[in-house]
Amino acid sequence: MFTVFIVIIAIIAVLLILIVLVQNSKGGGLTGELGGMGATQMFGVKRTTDLLEQITWGLVGALAVLCLVSNLFIGTPQADAGINSVNVEKANQRSVPAAPAPAPTTTPAPAQQQPAPAQK
User: Fold this and answer.
1) Which residue in 2, 9, 61, 92 is deepest, having the highest Cβ count within 10 Å?
2) What is the C-alpha separation between 120 and 117, in angstroms, rounded?
3) How far is CA 105 from the centre of its chain?
4) What radius of gyration, in Å, describes the C-alpha atoms of the chain?
5) Higher model confidence: residue 87 or residue 115?
6) DSSP secondary structure of 63-74
7) For the range 34-43, what are the long-range contacts, defined as Cβ-Cβ under 8 Å and sequence gap of 24 or more?
């Protein structure tokens, strides 16, 4: 079920990208790139900018709702399960080598103090 949500979200994201690219921006958008053919002529609707804006907001809303709803299908990890990974399994199978014994340290004998010279 989660995969279905991901596919639908991807389709909506691509549609949203295309709709945003078609819209007329300050620089002219794609309407200037289509040889002077305006967006109203391409879609045959007089108020195409309003329609495209409504479609954009609808797609954004659908994308947000689907992203939030898909979180319900992810599920929460169980505390008992832990992490399932090939690396974790390999690490559990290996034995930890014994630590080498520390080398004996010899402490030098304390320096013998010489008697203080007699004061006259």
Assistant:
1) 9
2) 9
3) 51
4) 37
5) 87
6) HHHHHHHHHHHH
7) none
Query: Shortest CA distance to 57 belongs to which of 15, 100, 86, 110?
Result: 15
d(C-alpha 60, C-alpha 15), whole Å: 10
Note the pTM of the prediction, 2 decimals: 0.47
Domain boundaries, the chain: 1-92
If one counts every other C-beta atom within 10 angstroms of the C-beta of residue 31, the result is 20
The half-sphere exposure of 118 on its side-chain side, counting CA atoms within 13 A, is: 1
DSSP sequence for 14-67: HHHHHHHHHS--TT-TTTTTTTT--HHHHHT-TTHHHHHHHHHHHHHHHHHHHH
Question: What is the per-residue pLDDT for 59?
Answer: 93
Predicted confidence (pLDDT) per residue in 28-85, tens digit? 555 555 555 554 455 555 566 688 888 999 999 999 999 888 888 776 655 556 667 7
